[in-house]
Design a protein that fits this description.
Layout lengths: L2 E7 L3 H15 L3 E11 L5 E5 L3 H19 L3 H18 L6 H8 L7 E10 L1 H7 L7 E6 L3 H11 L3
Antiparallel strand pairs: 1-4, 1-5, 2-3, 2-4
Helix pairs in contact: 2-3
Length: 163
């Protein structure tokens, strides 16, 4: 079962840097994330989702490949690629994998402009090594929401909110 962790920051930079640090730890097999999204709020008050994976681009690339392949069967690979890319981009834009976008937008609407939040869906991790790798973020954020057990959430809260 995956755990959701939402950490708020007083600036827009720290959430992105923490996501990058977690991604690096993922390459070292210390954590396995399903999704990691940075949410900021623009000057007009609208929440902005900064996904780690651009589903529209991925869908377009996949659709172009399959469209070209099918187009070759009907002797028109360029038309097949164009139609495939268009339908792939549309399906990628409409797809919502990982953390629910509406949930992130709703919580992001509570942020003040200039702040950010990092939403992470963790499949599994080695908590002591992950916290060791995130030492530079200790005291910079606050835990907004988790699906962790009370003990684990309190440990994370003490680490993130340490002064």
């Amino acid at each position: 079962m995956s755990n959701l962790i939402v950490i708020g920051f007083d600036n827009e930079r720290d959430a992105g840097e923490m996501r990058a640090a977690l991604a690096k730890m993922q390459t070292q097999y210390l954590i396995e994330m399903e999704d990691a999204v940075v949410v900021t709020r623009d000057a007009q008050g609208k929440p902005q989702l900064h996904q780690s994976l651009n589903l529209t681009a991925a869908g377009a690339a996949s659709g172009a490949f399959w469209g070209t392949l099918i187009g070759m069967l009907f002797l028109n690979p360029l038309l097949g690629a164009a139609l495939g890319a268009g339908s792939g981009a549309l399906s990628g834009k409409l797809a919502d994998i990982g953390i629910n976008d509406q949930f992130m937008k709703d919580l992001g609407a509570t942020l003040t402009p200039g702040t950010s939040a990092l939403f992470v869906l963790v499949r599994k991790s080695t908590p002591d090594k992950v916290l060791e790798g995130l030492k530079g973020f200790s005291g910079k954020g606050r835990v907004l929401q988790t699906s962790l057990t009370r003990d684990k959430e309190e440990e994370l809260r003490r680490f993130m909110e340490a002064k």
